Amino acid sequence: MLSIEQRKFLSPLITWRILDIENLIQLSKQNRSYSSAQKLLKRLQQRQLIEIYRDPWNKKNYVFLGNLAIKELCPDTRPLLNSGALYHDSKVTSLGVELLKFNKIFKSIELEHQIKKGKGIIGISDFIPDARVEGQFKAKFFQAAVELELHQKEKSRIVDKAKYYLESEYYNHALYFFPDNDLLQNYDTIIKKELGNDYNKKIFLFSCPLISKAKPSFENGTGLVMNKSKTFIEFFGGVY
Questions:
Q1: 231 and 116 within one domain
Q2: Is 87 exposed, middle or buried (0-12, 13-18, 19+ CB in 10 A)?
Q3: Domain of 226?
């Protein structure tokens, strides 16, 4: 059994599924030191209530619920994780947390597992983004799909997904994020060749090389917005 304090500490994992320790402390809104959190998590891991994933590149530890904790905290939602997707999922949550720091723009976020539960899905054949955000930019409400592309997908899938977002009445925009500018440029070339230059009026591309680091941020990136070179910070930073 989890104590009330432990339940509160782990509760962000119901929504986010996997978080690094710093973000878990922050989102749990508990006045807890990093060392205190580490000790608690070690005890919970020994009881098989949580599991730890260690990022092979930035060496950070990411926490997610074990089966015992899932049964106790969220038996209906069951935010199960695919062991083969832990790296990608951990980066998506890091990206999501960083997006919400731009709280004058991004008001809420739903991750893929929440979207799949059926809320707001239009047709079972629709592409499901890594996340979707709602917010307000320049006095206009928007809903945007969020895609984190760590590796290049097959050309046909890149084009089909981009075409879906361009034709979708549900999403005002799609925000694509990449770990480097080379991958961004590859996607731009592929989509532009198949769907034309105007795709970039709705689908925005951003490279964020620091998003996978120990201290993720949108600094030192590149971007393409409305066929102009514009980084995430340059485009959204004015109302940060």
A1: yes
A2: middle
A3: 91-239
